[in-house]
Amino acid sequence: MNCQRFEEIISHHCSPVLMGEKPANLVSFSKEKMPELPDIMKMYEEKFADEDIYMEVICGCRKHYLVLVYRKEVLEEYLKQPEVVELLVQDGYSKNGELKEKFSYLRKRFEEKKEFPHEIGLFLGYPLEDVKGFRINSGAGCKFCGYWKVYGDVEKAKLQFEVYDRCRAFVCGQIKQGYSILQILADHGNRNILQLQSGGRK
Q: Can you give the residue ranges of every domain in the chain?
């Protein structure tokens, strides 16, 4: 199994989640290049769960797996915010549905729309103001574009993007040095290192 390539892709696209700085990230895997992905995911499930990290296949089209990598407790808390619940209900989600139920409906939305549903930003933990701005403006006219399109507080978003960049540089650097993702997660001092590098900013 191509576990090394799996770890390289996860570290590049999901390092903010691994380091506890973001509720969720979305990552695409080629079915042609990694047909064994479901088996690889099963290998990591238990160890990831020890860190409250989970993986969910959100869309499995003909050529790609689209996987949501998320911190369950953090994502659940984010999605319980009244304004977030209100937006999800507008899109047909159950008001009191469990996370698995929400994922099931999100998969259905992908199948129906054949594109990224607008509410995906909520599942990725984007600032609510930016999600609303994207929906209202159909993705046009943003103030700044980084990890997402910013319609609200640009300076706050830039600081957050810098944290994500540091997460990626750190985790990818550790992978290149021969450490595994599980070893990185086991080293609880890593998060302190990131905080020092960020000057204590969140």
A: 3-197
